[in-house]
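Hi everyone, sorry if this is the wrong subforum. Our group has a chain we'd like a structural model of before ordering constructs, and none of us has done structure prediction before. Sequence below.
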Amino acid sequence: MGRVEEYKLIREALARFEKAKQSKNVYNVTQIATGSRGKGNTAFIGRQVHRELWSTDPDQIVNLEAVSLPFPLAWQFRFGWVVGIPDLVTFRDAQPIEVIEVKSYDSILNAETRQASLYGLLVQLNFHTRPRVFVKTLRDKFEIEGWEDIAIDTLLSFAAKLERRESHVHDEQ
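Answer:
Right subforum, don't worry. Here is the predicted structure as tokens:
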């Protein structure tokens, strides 16, 4: 791929994220992975950092040999938009090669694995490439093997939950 193609994919990904933010059916990666939006001081600080750092410049990604930064991602599925901003997406020669979800604690639960896997899937869908996916704790960096299956299972489970909720609402009416 030439740099023009990468630039186009980056711009399209950013535009997709902006479009998703305007939609009615938007679900955050954290919400899908954990069942909640994220709470507590750590979640608050994380959202603040993402908000302040989110000034993604496609030129920066295209012009640098390697860069790691939070990158806003979105993809529209049948049930709605899935959006999220992973802590770090590493681009080498303007192509995303890895996704790193950083945690301020040492234990990795299933939710962290699902969250990182969903970010990997969003990168794959937006950039047509398979990144490596990691969770970084205070002491270690763990690669998530089989993240595609984890992400798909998580989305299928979430979609089924939405369907049951919708069915329950219709039954009550």
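For your construct planning: The helical segments are 3-21, 29-34, 40-53, 58-63, 110-127, 147-172. The first strand starts at residue 26 and ends at 28.
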